[in-house]
């Protein structure tokens, strides 16, 4: 019994050890980049892709569902034991809490070793030698106009459904299989994006993800990029590339968004190009709205009818899932980001605009 207790206490100590690793790597981003992100993690990702990359279904989804069922079973079982042995109820409860804490510590430590240190790597702007100095509202407006013109042009080359909303030219499954082509093309300009990718996978319980306000998720324990395939087609290519950015070791949300835009922009398919440009346009114009509403509405009036229909379809879709469940999920995600030393939390998504402006500068 003592040996079991000592073993559990040892595992629980992995929590402060994992946090120490996280803290030290945050103070040495250069080493985290060189040793972990470009070294250790590449080996880990290659190994995980060999296991899960060729399996068509999401192993992550299966594991999550089984874990939830097991957790519910364990809670019910513990409650029943406490009722049957009321004299030992406190001891049973303490033992259950220790077991839960042990499991959490193992998961947290595993997360940190398998992927979490990537949060502390060098900023992508530094890796790409971008100028991210503060931009004026006029410069932001230039970027918005450029993205709008690009989106309007590309919109003419994508297919529409019966409602006049963009639809994929191939099946969702085929679209996900071809997501890697954008990264293959982008890696010629950005060598850091070269990787042996496991293909993104559509989630069977995508409707549940929508209720949680989740478009996609990277699962570090299997190395899988999981995509909510119930979303409007305009979002699927960009979301697949976003999760693939996590897959190659870019953990920060703002950077994953920007890298997804780069991958989509370089993809040979108009579906991906349009999805990436439209997502960048949404991010950029949302920022413009905060700083200059007059210019925002002027620009909005120049959106093509097809682009407007696509944006309306996106808004209508997500409004259906604007529930307390989604709000709770957003709060959990916010806490998760802050726990990984992303102090802006969910707001860090907005910093993608800095990278869009820097990329625009590099092309001038």
| Percentage beta strand | under 5%
Mean pLDDT: 89
Number of individual domains: 2
What is the C-alpha radius of gyration, as a whole number of Å? 22 Å
* Category from helices, strands and their pairing: mainly alpha
The strand count comes to 5
- Low-confidence spans: 325-333, 344-349
Instruction: Give the number of helices.
Output: 17
Order of helices and strands: HHHHHHHEEHHEHEEHHHHHHH
Protein name: DUF3810 domain-containing protein
Keywords: Membrane, Transmembrane, Transmembrane helix
Transmembrane segments: 54-76, 96-117
Quick overview of this protein structure:
By secondary structure, the protein is mainly alpha-helical.
Give an overview of the whole structure.
The protein is mainly alpha-helical. It is built from 17 helices and five strands. A three-stranded mixed β-sheet has the order 3-5-4. It has a two-stranded antiparallel ribbon with strand order 1-2. Strand 4 and strand 5 (224-227) form a beta hairpin. Helix 12 (253-265) crosses helix 13, helix 12 (253-265) packs parallel to helix 17 and helix 13 packs antiparallel against helix 14 (293-300). It starts with a helix and ends with a helix. This is DUF3810 domain-containing protein.
Features:
single chain; DUF3810 domain-containing protein; transmembrane; mainly alpha; 364 residues; DUF3810; 2 domains; transmembrane helix
What is the secondary structure topology, with strand pairs?
Layout: H1 2-12, H2 14-26, H3 29-52, H4 59-84, H5 89-114, H6 124-127, H7 137-155, E1 159-160, E2 166-167, H8 172-177, H9 180-186, E3 201-202, H10 206-211, E4 216-219, E5 224-227, H11 236-247, H12 253-265, H13 270-291, H14 293-300, H15 305-319, H16 324-339, H17 352-363
Helix pairs in contact: 1-5, 2-5, 4-5, 7-13, 9-12, 11-12, 12-13, 12-17, 13-14
């Amino acid at each position: 019994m003592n040996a079991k207790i000592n073993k559990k206490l040892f595992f629980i100590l992995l929590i402060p050890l994992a946090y120490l690793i996280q803290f030290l790597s945050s103070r040495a981003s250069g080493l985290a980049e060189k040793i972990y992100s470009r070294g250790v993690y590449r080996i880990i990702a290659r190994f995980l892709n060999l296991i899960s990359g060729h399996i068509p279904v999401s192993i992550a989804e299966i594991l999550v569902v089984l874990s939830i069922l097991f957790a519910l079973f364990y809670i019910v079982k513990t409650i029943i034991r406490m009722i049957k042995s009321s004299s030992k109820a406190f001891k049973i409860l303490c033992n259950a809490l220790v077991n839960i804490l042990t499991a959490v510590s193992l998961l947290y430590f595993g997360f940190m070793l398998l992927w979490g240190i990537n949060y502390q790597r060098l900023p992508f702007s530094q890796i790409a030698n971008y100028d991210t100095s503060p931009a004026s509202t006029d410069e932001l407006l230039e970027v918005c106009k450029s993205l709008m013109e690009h989106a309007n042009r590309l919109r003419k080359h994508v297919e529409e459904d019966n409602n006049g909303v963009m639809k994929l030219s191939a099946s969702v499954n085929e679209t996900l299989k071809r997501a890697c082509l954008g990264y293959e093309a982008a890696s010629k300009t950005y060598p850091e994006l070269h990787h042996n990718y496991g293909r993104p996978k559509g989630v069977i319980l995508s409707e549940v993800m929508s209720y949680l306000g989740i478009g996609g998720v990277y699962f570090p324990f299997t190395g899988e990029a999981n995509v909510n395939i119930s979303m409007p087609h305009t979002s699927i290519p960009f979301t697949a590339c976003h999760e693939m950015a996590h897959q190659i070791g870019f953990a920060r949300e703002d950077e994953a968004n920007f890298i997804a835009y780069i991958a989509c922009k370089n993809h040979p398919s108009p579906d991906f190009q349009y999805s990436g440009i439209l997502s960048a346009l949404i991010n950029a114009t949302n920022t413009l709205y905060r700083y200059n509403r007059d210019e925002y509405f002027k620009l909005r009036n120049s959106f093509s009818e097809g682009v407007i229909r696509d944006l309306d379809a996106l808004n209508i879709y997500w409004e259906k899932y604007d529930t307390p469940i989604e709000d709770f999920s957003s709060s959990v995600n916010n806490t998760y980001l802050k726990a990984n030393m992303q102090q802006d939390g969910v707001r860090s998504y907005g910093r993608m605009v800095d990278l869009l402006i820097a990329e625009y500068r590099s092309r001038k």
